[in-house]
Write a structure and sequence with these properties.
Layout lengths: L2 H7 L6 E6 L2 E4 L41 E2 L14 E2 L9 E2 L14 E2 L9 E2 L14 E2 L9 E2 L14 E2 L11 E9 L2 E12 L7 E5 L5 E4 L3 E9 L6 E5 L5 E3 L13 E2 L14 E2 L16 E4 L6 E6 L5 E7 L5 E8 L5 E5 L6 E8 L4 E8 L2
Parallel strand pairs: 3-4, 5-6, 7-8, 9-10, 18-19
Antiparallel strand pairs: 1-2, 11-12, 12-15, 13-14, 13-16, 16-17, 20-21, 21-24, 22-23, 22-25, 25-26
Length: 379
């Protein structure tokens, strides 16, 4: 007795017109299908067409010899135009693909393997503790690296580094802002617009900073203490300066600043609290000098030659290597502003060829002191 056949035929004797074959109801008690194969008491025990041995139509000779089992769906990839009875064997494109679960392109719907399995595209380091962990990799290729990467490993910190594996104590939780001074001013001889001098000291834990103005989005990056001049801006136009940290989510915004430089006047420092206050000045030109850092009696820098013509050599005799250089003329007007790096015992040549003949004050600003040197330019 064939268990599969009797299970399909059912356990009832003479189950006339209850089950279907090829979409049509069948009579299990007819000579075409045979009998219940003796699986219940009282059923005939003979099987003239060998149904109990698995011989279903048309193989048992009980049906028209022209009937052919197969896939009758034209959209299937194994469509058989000769088939007259659909035997449920149809296969579709979605069922063809890679059947290997270990492959990168495994298709869980595929029942026929088309030889497309590949094992490369999804390989990588699958260990989250490795420094080169690849979250997209599904097959580990043995490439994991466990190097120590220093940085801030605390997700709550402003400078959290998701790549870091070793906390180096650099985590920052609060913004420590630099001291920022904003000064809008006119420039002697320029009646068309005004300038803004942005001075940064004590950069804090967010350095470097990017300075941007609201008028034309001009940007300048400050990695050291010192000043930048932005402009010119049209007379009377309010301009806001934004100082943004490049390393943490912190920023400072100035008040709107504006000047009208179209009216001639006397240029100079108009702030009575400044060291170089000029009581006769009617237009502030940004040249004011303040005691922002403790003045030192000892000079750490020497300058030569003096008088000079085109160049001034600045020698560091023991100060910090980074310095801001500001040159003011005899009226206190700022005529040059730049930053230099010169280590102890070395010199830096300052180009003053564009300066007119006269007396100038060269201000050298470092982290710990300010020095002023008087230099004569002779042409």
């Amino acid at each position: 007795m064939s268990i599969g056949v009797t299970a399909w035929l059912g356990d009832g004797f003479a189950d006339n017109d209850f089950y279907q074959w090829a979409g049509q109801y069948v009579n299990f008690n007819c000579s075409t299908w045979g009998y219940d194969c003796g699986d219940i008491e009282g059923a005939p025990n003979f099987d003239p067409y060998n149904v109990c041995d698995g011989q279903l139509p048309p193989f048992n000779g009980c049906t028209d010899v022209t009937e052919v089992l197969g896939c009758t769906d034209p959209t299937a990839i194994n469509y058989n135009p000769q088939a007259t009875i659909n035997d449920g064997s149809c296969i579709y494109n979605l069922q063809v693909g890679c059947t290997n679960p270990a492959a990168c392109n495994y298709n869980d719907l595929a029942i026929i393997d088309d030889g497309s399995c590949e094992f490369i595209s999804c390989t990588g380091c699958t260990d989250p503790d490795a420094s080169n962990y690849d979250p997209t990799a599904t097959v580990d290729d043995g490439s994991c690296i466990y190097l120590q990467i220093d940085g801030c490993t605390d997700p709550d910190a402003l400078n959290y580094d998701p790549v870091a594996t070793n906390d180096d104590g650099s985590c920052i939780y609060n913004c420590i802002w630099p001291n920022v001074n904003y000064d809008s001013h006119c420039t002697e001889g320029d009646l068309d617009g005004f300038y803004i001098d942005v001075d940064l000291t004590s950069l804090g834990n967010g350095a470097p900073y990017t300075i941007t103005n609201s008028y034309n989005n001009q940007q300048q990056v400050m990695t050291l203490t010192g000043s930048v001049i932005m402009g010119p801006f049209p007379n009377g136009v309010p301009v806001v300066v934004l100082v943004t940290s490049n390393t943490i989510d912190c920023f400072l915004t100035s008040q709107p600043m504006t000047e009208d430089c179209s009216v001639p006047g006397v240029y100079g420092c108009t702030d009575p609290t400044a060291l170089n206050y000029n009581p006769d000045a009617t237009i502030d030109d940004g040249s004011c000098i303040y005691i922002g850092v403790e003045e030192q009696e000892i000079s750490f820098f020497t300058l030569y030659p003096n008088p000079a013509k085109d160049k001034v050599v600045i020698t560091n005799n023991g100060a910090a290597p980074v310095a801001g250089i500001r040159i003011m003329d005899s009226t206190g007007r700022l005529v040059m502003n730049e930053q230099i790096v010169v280590i102890e015992g070395n010199s830096h040549t300052l180009d003053v060829s564009t300066l007119a003949q006269g007396n100038y004050v060269i201000e050298i600003l470092t982290e710990k002191n300010i020095e002023h040197h008087t230099v004569i330019i002779q042409k």
